[in-house]
Every structure is written in structure tokens, then in C-alpha cells.
Input
Amino acid sequence: MTFTGCTKTNDNKDDKSLIVQESNSNNTKVASTDNVDTSKSDNTVIDESGNTEINNSDTNVINDSETTTPAPLTSGTSVKETIVLEDLSEYFDNYDGCFVMFDKNKNQYTIYNEEKSKKRISPCSTFKIMNSLIILETGVIEDENTIIKWDGTEYPIETWNCDQTLQSAITNSVVWVYRLLATKVGEKDMQEYLDLVDYGNNDISGGIDKFWLQSSITISPLEQITILRRLYNEELPFSKRSMDIVKKIIVLTDENNIKLSGKTGSGKDNLGWFVGYIENNDNVYYFATNIETKDNATDKADGPTAKQISLNILHDKELY
Output
């Protein structure tokens, strides 16, 4: 039997347990949505497809005083990393945005809006990359094909209303899955791994099942690049198996010898992320795009917009 996302239903509405069961296919094809939270709160966030996300946090934690600089990989490098500042304002229109790219072969950063590239803000659904690594490493689930039972709760996104796997959950950005699995990881292990990774400010005080949803944990675009580089180079404090699985499930397209991997993230009408990397012609280009809505602007900042801006820039650079 092939698991294809929301083609199954759970007859037992009270069963919230995980069922360890492997599907016979790794090719789960599902539609993409992002960042709808499932908590019961009056604070709402609109997700990338126009649906409502519930946000437990009363405030969007953005600390302008927290800045970061490019961090070397744990293995070090004998080649000096260079930074090129480039004016890409034409791509961002009415958004306060930044774009960071690291060219592996040149060992070079390209940065638009250097100040913002160092600013830590909520990762939103881009945290699903790190969350997946920790979930796998702690053995909460076996692999990307483990079946995670839906408890029958109806959500505004149809693809959420069924049993899931880690593959379908990250493709469809199924927040209830990651909230459930993060709870099973527990605060102790979650904090230990984030400290080992040094993920932004490492702050999970906002709650084990929601600290990444415009709550306590924050990370900068430059730090996102560092995490992606360490993941690709298998320099994070996780097993090769866990990192290989996560690298597999974040692949978005793979054609014409160009592979795009990444994850979007959206916040409360005012925040959008797209982070990832492109493998092209024996080189790897890591990127992180972040946008926020400018004061008094009407244009919504979200993940799909950040993704489109990223792809426009990468296309014009003849990388994608």
C-alpha cells in the first residue's frame, strides 16, 4: 500500500498515539502549505495559503539588538571567506527584506541588506528542518515513512486532516505533527540539541510545542546559512542517517542536474522566510531570504513571497 497523504482516515477520534508503520513507497506527493498552528488562542496568524494560524504568543519576539556574523564550520577552512554586498532592492518592492547566499566553491557570501542579515527573528516553519533532525535523532519516530496518526481534529487545510509521515508533514507543513512530536521529544532533549547546534538564541521558553511560532526562539539569516552548510556537510551533532533523511525530505525539485532543497516559513502577515540550497554544476549555493512588511504597507509578507523573491534572484544569477 502506498501512503499518499490524506487518502486515509482515522476512525478512532480519541487515538492520538504514534503508530510505527512503514509504507511501501518513499514517493509521497502532496500539495504544499505552510505554518498553520493548531493551538486554541485568540491570536491568529495567516498561513501561506490564506488559512488561519493560531499563535499562542502575545508578541512577535524580534530583538533588534541581537546581531550575528557568519560563523565558520566546525571543520574549519584554510580559505578565507569573503563577503560581497549587493544591491538587490529591486526584488523586494514594499518589503523590508534581505537575501544571503553562500557560494561553496568561491567561499563567498553575497549579502543584500547586511544589517538585516544579522537580525534574529522567529524561524516559523523553517524550524521544521531542525525539528525533524531532533525528532529522528531522539527516536521519537523511526524514519520519514513512519505513520503518525491523525486524531480526527478538523483543520482548515484539507491535507492536514489525515494520517501523516514526516515526509508529508514537512511537504504540507503540518503544524500539528511537529507540535505533537516536539512534545514527545521533551524540553530536556530539545534544549540539549539546540545548545549543541547553537541554533540562534536557543530559547525554548515559549513552550515545547510552539517556541518556534513567533515566540521565544529567534535566528538570523546568516545563522540559517550556517545551519544549512553544516547539515549539507554532515557537521551537525546528529547521525549521518538522520541528516540524510532530512536532506531527502526537504528536496523540492530535482531536474536538469539542478536540485533545489528548502523550506518556507510564514508569520503573522508580517514575516516570510525561504531558506535552502541549490546543487548545480558541482557547486552548492546556500541561501536565506527574509522579508517583513514595512510600516503602513499593505503587501503581506509570507513564505511564498519570500520563495518567489529567492527564485527570481537565483534565476537572474543563472543558478536556477
The chain has one domain: 18-316.
